[in-house]
């Protein structure tokens, strides 16, 4: 039920169509602590869980808890108005490229392998790799969210060749020939040390000409500036 650094928008998206009582816990972006988000009959509700440094406990309402586990366990067994019934489902991802772990905090996976999301921190996700059963961090631009697993999509991605002119659009489960127009779905302001990487804004339209093996793609903007952006920051459109 812990999802790490998850935006409010993504949280609402995950819970909106779930049964009443479905919940998740994410990091708070404004306070020291966490946010419990619950699907209730009248919508998605958020509750701050601050961490109290003096007592080393978590406060929820007027009560203190030794751990988040204790708090969640209490409300899953509670008869109160707010009863937690089930954790929010976690997404399935597919590897877009082969990835070799560099240390024991990361996990290796192959292209088209299923990975089960645990939580996210910045540009890395903690996942469980299907082939090894191991848990570790993976770069977000090496994987693609597919939601409920599709054997057809897995077969398509497994058969994908390495040519740069073809990219699998996992949201639609089909292949797209490049160049294509890409709509920015996540803003990015890269470090000045990342030479050739573009700053992009949500809603901006880019022309995608090439997909690279590291998960980035070469694009052109309307102002004729070219550069690199992560492929999973774009929604590829039908021209």
TrEMBL record:
Annotated GO biological process: cell migration; enzyme-linked receptor protein signaling pathway
Superkingdom: Eukaryota
Coiled coil: none
Residue ranges of domain SH2 in the record: 1-88
InterPro entries, alphabetized: SH2, SH2_dom_sf, SH3-like_dom_sf, SH3_domain, Tyrosine-phos_adapter
Keywords: SH2 domain, SH3 domain
Boundaries of every SH3 domain copy: 88-148, 177-239
GO cellular component: cytoplasm
Pfam families (alphabetical): SH2, SH3_2, SH3_9
Gene Ontology molecular function: any one: receptor tyrosine kinase binding
Protein name according to UniProt: SH2 domain protein
Organism encoding this protein: Opisthorchis viverrini
Lineage, opening ranks: Eukaryota, Metazoa, Spiralia, Lophotrochozoa, Platyhelminthes
């Amino acid at each position: 039920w812990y999802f790490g650094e998850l935006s409010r928008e993504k949280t609402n998206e995950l819970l909106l169509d779930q049964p009443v009582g479905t919940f998740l816990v994410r990091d708070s972006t404004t306070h020291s602590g966490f946010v419990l988000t619950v699907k209730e009959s009248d919508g998605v509700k958020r509750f701050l869980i601050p961490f109290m440094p003096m007592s080393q406990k978590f406060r929820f309402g007027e009560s203190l808890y030794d751990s988040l586990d204790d708090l969640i366990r209490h409300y899953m067994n509670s008869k109160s108005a707010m009863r937690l019934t089930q954790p929010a489902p976690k997404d399935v991802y597919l590897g877009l490229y082969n990835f070799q772990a560099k240390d024991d905090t990361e996990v290796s996976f192959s292209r088209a392998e299923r990975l089960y999301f645990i939580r996210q921190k910045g540009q890395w996700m903690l996942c469980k790799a299907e082939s090894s059963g191991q848990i570790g961090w993976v770069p977000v631009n090496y994987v693609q969210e597919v939601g409920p697993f599709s054997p057809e999509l897995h077969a398509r991605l497994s058969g994908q060749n390495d040519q740069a002119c073809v990219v699998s659009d996992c949201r639609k489960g089909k292949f797209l020939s490049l160049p294509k127009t890409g709509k920015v779905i996540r803003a990015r302001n890269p470090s000045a040390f990342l030479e050739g990487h573009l700053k992009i804004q949500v809603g901006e339209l880019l022309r995608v000409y090439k997909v690279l093996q590291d998960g980035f793609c070469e694009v052109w903007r309307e102002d004729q500036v070219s550069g690199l952006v992560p492929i999973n920051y774009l929604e590829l459109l039908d021209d």
